[in-house]
Amino acid sequence: MPAVYISYPFCRQKCTYCNFASGVFPRSLEERYRKALLAEIGSHIWRWRPETLYLGGGTPGDIEAEGLEAILAAVPGHPWLEVTIEAAPGSIARDLVDVWCRLGVNRVSLGVQSFIGGEIARTGRKHTAHTVRDEVALLRNGGITNINIDLIAGLAGQTVKNWSESLDWIERLAPPHVSVYMFELDEDSRLGREILQGGARYGARDVPSDDRTAEMYETAVERLLAMGLERYEISNFALPGHESRHNLKYWRLEPYTGFGADAHSFDGDMRRQNVEAPQDYTERVERGESPCIGAVRAQAEEERFFVGLRLTAGIRPRPKEWQRFERPIRRFLGEGLLETDGETLRLTSRGILVSNEVFQEFVDI
Questions:
Q1: Each residue's pLDDT tens digit, 158-178
Q2: Which residues make beta-bridge pairs with 55?
Q3: According to a count of CB atoms within 10 Å of the terminal CB, is the N or C end of the chain lower?
Q4: Does the model's pTM come out above 0.70?
């Protein structure tokens, strides 16, 4: 069954590590954006009823009740199997949880990133570990028990000791799902640009080395497994039965439709992308134009390897794929980055740490 992604790129503050097309924008633009979003959803021709919804961004958890109700009412299929909303710690109250439950939201993803005060401050976030603890309790008491907590390995000033303390908090809170990302160095984030330019802002000179970041990630894998959270995708860990149904659709190449700025869509054949900037998106829709800026035909075989190998379960290559990709497969098997039982191909633990390099080999052929 297909899925729907709704992009809400508005935040209270722009985090230093963030490389998404989100940020702090004028309130007037946010109001216009919502109208544009409703217009895009309203003009869509529904050929199927979505099974899952995901509201990401940005911080869609900040949308007030009336606005969220209007957005969800525009999408057919209620009640959906899974509705996820991303939220920032420090913004959740009991009345908000009640609204979410009433509207069908049954999964919340908290962008915690760290439980350590100094690390949190350098990201630009303002929560504390106790804030997260209290809000997880609010969610559970309000009826939302399917909770994800995001962590980032490699933040400025992060130490092995502090990372262990963040994992201790995960153990105390016992969420059924945890996402662990390794900080990516690129110019699309303020911290990334500062590092590349040799600056010192945002703690740029205190970012752990790649080896130390990989070490912390591996520690997380071990600790989370001991808590019963199994890695089912490179960055995602869950109790059995609590995997993200929506995100699994991406990795299994199932269809989804995206609405909003920088949203992507895939119908099983073509991939489409909306214009990235919220201002541009809003103005295009207001003029009666399509926000889509490009459509390309999916490269089926390459994408099966690129996306499917992200899953711990791996992929089962077809005979012609074994033949087409024989050279990189043999190379990575020999280097211990891939493993196979003769039918299924999957990344090893070492391969996961250099997964982007592995994926690139299949894309280039």
A1: 999 999 999 999 999 999 999
A2: 6, 85
A3: C
A4: yes
Q: Which residues fall within 8 angstroms of residue 18, CB to CB, at 6 or more apart? A: 189, 190
**DSSP, residue by residue, 249-305:** HHHTT--EEEESTT-EEE-SSEEEEE-SSHHHHHHHHHTT---EEEEEE--HHHHHH
Which is nearest to 65 in space by CA: 40, 97, 41?
Answer: 97
Rounded to 10 degrees, the C-alpha dihedral 117/119/121/127 comes to -50
Task: Give the pLDDT confidence of 126-156 residue by residue, as tens digits.
Answer: 899 999 999 999 999 999 999 999 999 999 9
Q: Kindly indicate the confidence band of residue 365, based on its pLDDT and cuts at 50, 70 and 90.
A: low
Compute the distance between CA of residue 198 and CA of residue 20 in angstroms, rounded to an integer: 22
Two tokens at 98? 């009640």
Q: Which amino acid is at 98?
A: D
CA torsion angle 256 259 265 267 (round to 10)? 50
With a CB cutoff of 8 Å and minimum separation 6, the contacts of 265 are: 256, 257, 258, 271, 272, 273
DSSP letter string, 79-111: SPSEEEEEE-TT---HHHHHHHHHHT--EEEEE
- pLDDT band for 88, please (50, 70, 90 cuts): very high
The whole-angstrom distance between residue 183's C-alpha and the CA centroid of its chain comes to 13
Nearest residue to 256 via CA among 36, 42, 52: 52
**Cα–Cα dist 285/33, whole Å:** 9
DSSP secondary structure, 304-333, as one string:
HHHHHTTBTT-B---HHHHHHTHHHHHHHH
